[in-house]
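Box S1 | Example of a co-folding query
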Amino acid sequence: MNRIFSGVQPTGGLHLGNYLGAIRNFVTLQDSYHCIYCVVDLHAVTTWQDPAALKANTREVTAAYLAAGVDPERCIIFNQSQVGEHAELAWIFNCVARMGWLNRMTQFKEKAGKHRENASVGLFAYPNLMAADILLYKATHVPVGDDQKQHLELTRDIAQKFNNDFGVDFFPICEPLILGSATRVMSLRDGKSKMSKSDPSDYSRIAMTDEADAIAQKIRKAKTDPDPLPGPEALGPDGEVPEDARGARPEACNLLGIYAALAERSLAEVLGEQEGAQFSRFKEDLTELAVAKLGPIGAEMKRLMAEPDHVDAILRRGAERAHAIAHPILDEVHEIVGFLRP
Ligand code: TRP
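Box S1 (continued) | Returned holo structure for tryptophan
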């Protein structure tokens, strides 16, 4: 069976964008792939994390996986730092990847900003660790958002260069899986920027643990425009909102996209039903739907986070299973590279 690897950083404040863009897809994929879902704490510490918060956030991501419906028996759920092989393979990849390749990474440029000299070395080498995550299990498919495509390209380049340099056919060349149209959930306050945990306004996002009244209030306050919803003929031949229409009504498109994603229906179906509706009305339907879908997940997350021992036991067991796959693969890498082994 093909193998999937994906990860979410435990940096706190999981929101609707994380759910629709990543975690929800993890649940669907477990039916057709062998799936390994990681809480990437080593990636999180490329920027400063408060130690107590890091522990809580690691449990939060784990709880989100479980509450959304990832099955810890069929899938492997673990936190990255418990499997030392990730850091070991990343070191070898630090010696495979070229400075020029990493210098081109747009995410580093965005995250480091004007303070490049002050960014951690780990933040610069971040994509090498991500490549190690994936290749340590010889994963073939990686579900990621748009923003991670460049890192996945780099993973393919590293696999290829490793294979070439050592004259082996060892690492597979993995494929991205970009799923569903709602993988890009935008801010509720500005339809042109992504929903993000770092947005200063709480009203810009719906947290996975928000209660019904918070969800309702945020949707009520969400930015829209005075026009009603169009009919399905406004969509392009691919069933998506055409680029110019999105540009003209970014907030309207975002709410429509969120609705369709939560309802697990096409945009055409939703517009067929909602044609001519004003946003004041549409928001009521959206609130009802969001509360129905997210409410039980948020409640289950809170229940799990109140039982840290249970969550930790799942991670420990996952780490053992991950280690059992990763260890022999890293062993072979050591042999290929020429390290003397015991
Ligand atoms: N970089 C990814 C993100 O921020 C998280 C991640 C780390 C990841 N390792 C991975 C995703 C391996 C997919 C596969 O979203």
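The domain at 202-304 is CATH 1.10.240.10 (Tyrosyl-Transfer RNA Synthetase). The mean pLDDT is 96.
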